[in-house]
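Below is one such record:
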Amino acid sequence: MTLRNTAARWGSAARFFHWAGAALIFYLLIHGWWMTEMAPRPSRMPNYMTHAAVGYALIAFMALRLLWRGLNPVPELPAATARWERVAAHAGHWGLYLLTLAAAFSGWALAGTFRTPLHSFFGLFDVPALVSAGDNRALHRMLEEAHEVLAWTLAALVAIHVASALWHWLWRKDDIFQRML
């Protein structure tokens, strides 16, 4: 197993970035839904603080992931892959990157609009605010809605990504799914 990608397989670093990023995204999606819909009101602020800190970690993680991807070859798709599948795969992957970053950055902007801004990175240091709105509730609601829409759109694209991987594994029986394991 090599650290770097080859023309045929993802390297161990790319697989780490894929699965660790997936874990962070799943955590943030599930935790975000739970903390806004299920958590009792008094416990929401500590949950918002944790959610923001994990979101900041995801932004840094995605910067490293994209840097690694830019420095490594992307494995070739099987020769029999139709053009529309190649376009869909390319658009889907870049859509995941874009939506992940858009949801994370909208959350970062939203964090500065709380009455108590959410700037702490797990108590280790403060992250500067992207937006400092004071008591501008309209801006807070707008950013909250944008963050929610982006998160749900990301969740939908993740579901399509998972379904596509399963389709390759179970029906196409090619190695697309296995080379990310």
About this structure: The two ends are 11 Å apart (CA to CA). The chain has a mean pLDDT of 92.
